[in-house]
Amino acid sequence: MWELGVAVVACLAAAFFAVRLAAARRAYARAVEERGWLLERERETAARTAVDAERARIARELHDVVSHNVSVMVVQAGAARRVLDTSATDATDALLAVESAGRDTMTELRHMLGLLAPSADGHEDPLAPQPGLDRLGSLVDRMCFAGLPVEVRISGEPRPLPSGVDLTAYRIVQEALTNALKHGDGRQAEVVVRYAEHHLRVEVLNTGPSVLSGSGMSTTSTASTADGPGRGLLGLRERVAVLGGDLDARRRLGGGFRVRAKLPLDRP
């Protein structure tokens, strides 16, 4: 009888442990399945985030490339229309500026499209340089020719900059001058670039109606202010934030607008 009792207990214990083992395996299988599902969700979320970030980057680049040159083209086309019957020479100069701005737009768009979808023959150079402060002179010349006098002041010792900082500094000046051309009074703009040991400071000022008097504000400028920051300024804030810098854009009490940025030069 003793041996039979031991055998029964052993059978019951074996059955118990078999049931527990089966339950543990099922729980493990469910856990693995749930973990796989969570990992898949995380991968999908990361992929969507990457796609959204890339879309935002492309939108910023398209805005920066197109908005400036198209604004210059619109201003110059309007000038050509106004003087077409009275001064053929001035009209021709304005139309040449439209053509030049259009060619610049096409060049930058081809470069951008080449990065997104390289040509099959391999002729597109993906490493072609992006614009930087070395092209500040030509940018200022275009704005002056479009009717916005620009004064440039550079302090410190100019030196090669990290590519991201160089491009962002150029885009800040480009966007600020474009907005000054579209929304300012067209009297004067000032660009200040300061090379410090650890930072690059960029400031763009333009004249305009005083926010204290509120007089002389154009409909376009008022609408732009009421709608809040435009895509251009939002894009600049994102560019600067990626570099670990600061950007401040606001109306000046004495009139006009000020855009000021501080970009670190030694950020890893």
UniProtKB/TrEMBL annotation:
Major enzyme class: transferase
Region (Disordered): 211-230
Highest taxon listed in the record's lineage: Bacteria
SUPFAM superfamilies: ATPase domain of HSP90 chaperone/DNA topoisomerase II/histidine kinase
Domain Histidine kinase positions: 171-267
Reactions catalysed according to its record: ATP + protein L-histidine = ADP + protein N-phospho-L-histidine
InterPro entries, A to Z: HATPase_C_sf (IPR036890), HATPase_dom (IPR003594), His_kinase_dom (IPR005467), Sensor_HK_TwoCompSys (IPR050482), Sig_transdc_His_kin_sub3_dim/P (IPR011712)
Keyword RNA-binding: no
One Gene Ontology cellular component: membrane
Keyword Chaperone attached: no
Biased composition (Low complexity): 213-228
EC annotation from Swiss-Prot or TrEMBL: 2.7.13.3
Any one GO molecular function term: protein dimerization activity
Keywords: ATP-binding, Kinase, Nucleotide-binding, Phosphoprotein, Transferase, Two-component regulatory system
Full protein name: histidine kinase
